[in-house]
TrEMBL record:
This is Nicotinate-nucleotide--dimethylbenzimidazole phosphoribosyltransferase. InterPro entries: Nict_dMeBzImd_PRibTrfase (IPR003200), Nict_dMeBzImd_PRibTrfase_bact (IPR017846), Nict_dMeBzImd_PRibTrfase_N (IPR023195), Nict_dMeBzImd_PRibTrfase_sf (IPR036087). Gene3D superfamilies: 1.10.1610.10, 3.40.50.10210. It is an enzyme of class 2 (transferase). Catalyzes the synthesis of alpha-ribazole-5'-phosphate from nicotinate mononucleotide (NAMN) and 5,6-dimethylbenzimidazole (DMB). The gene is cobT. One of its GO terms (molecular function) is nicotinate-nucleotide-dimethylbenzimidazole phosphoribosyltransferase activity. The active site is at 318 (proton acceptor). Its EC number is 2.4.2.21. One of its GO terms (biological process) is cobalamin biosynthetic process. Keywords: Cobalamin biosynthesis, Glycosyltransferase, Transferase. Belongs to the CobT family. The keyword Glycosyltransferase applies. It comes from the Bacteria.
Amino acid sequence: MEKLLAEACARIGDLDKEAMSRAQARLDQLLKPPGSLGRLEELAVQLAGIMGTPAPTIKDKCVVVMAGDHGVVAEGVSAAPQEITYQILPHFVRGTSGIGVLARHVGARLVVVDVGVARPVSFSGVLVRKVRAGTGNIARGPAMSREEALQAIGVGIEVATEEVRKGASLIATGDMGIGNTTPSSAILSAFTGLPVEETVGRGTLVNDAVLERKRKVVAQSLAVNRPDPSDPLDVLAKVGGLEIAGLVGVILGAAAHRVPVLLDGFITGAAALVAVGLCPRVRQFLIASHLSQEKAHQHMLRHLGLKPLLDFDLRLGEGTGAALAMPLVEAACKILKEMVTFSEAQVAAMHEDMLLRP
């Protein structure tokens, strides 16, 4: 799996500057004041650079949800019982969960992967790629071995590669794993050095007593495991999660095929921190779909240098925010392809010498 990771990272190049320049030139000539579509224009130029064409097109969309359990729930850090991770999987594939409904709404294929659920999974429609049955308790020791982290990343790379082979030109990331805000907070603290008071939030709306317990658990996990921020794989293995590792692979695998990646919220952001640590160029392929209500998400996005497209006070996870942002990505492509320029419309152009340029 280490070879698979190295190959994926080696394939991730820079954005296509020529395609971006041509896309920007067309945007400036379209039937509108320059820059008047704001962030949509920025997104269009990024997509041109990712896909290597001044006329990017989204043909097929998918949401990849990685599922895994966490030994740290034994510390009482979540109001939700661990059993929910297993119980909700059939609702994903039946389309009756939050992401099931929203993926169907936006016309995206939903891919659900068991990379580390504690119980044996045999639900029709769920890909079983289990590395192990849940992680260890990070408050007492490492989440997993380095080899297991690599294996889970490999699962994600393989899933993303298969979805691209099927035609996916936009991949959204989603997660399922009770207790996973705790390792995500630990990952954020490890990479940024921020105190637990800044990185640990309420997750499933836990009360003040549980919030304080979470903070102590995250601090303890960092003290016990001493993750090395200069070694992203070490951070992932010591204080991460199997579904987080799977998402790292999805991000790297998609970027290796020049497919844009829509991040969801706090958990997928933690995966992005690891992915960017392993391959800094991958950041250019990331799109932040929304700002999570989990307060530390803002620190995560700031560290990644990303601006969210939406702010809907979402905190469900599962890829729901990423699914909601998919139509915005499609819209960015369509303004490049379907809007006409002033000359094409035979409309008098604006006076260039009177325009304010950034």
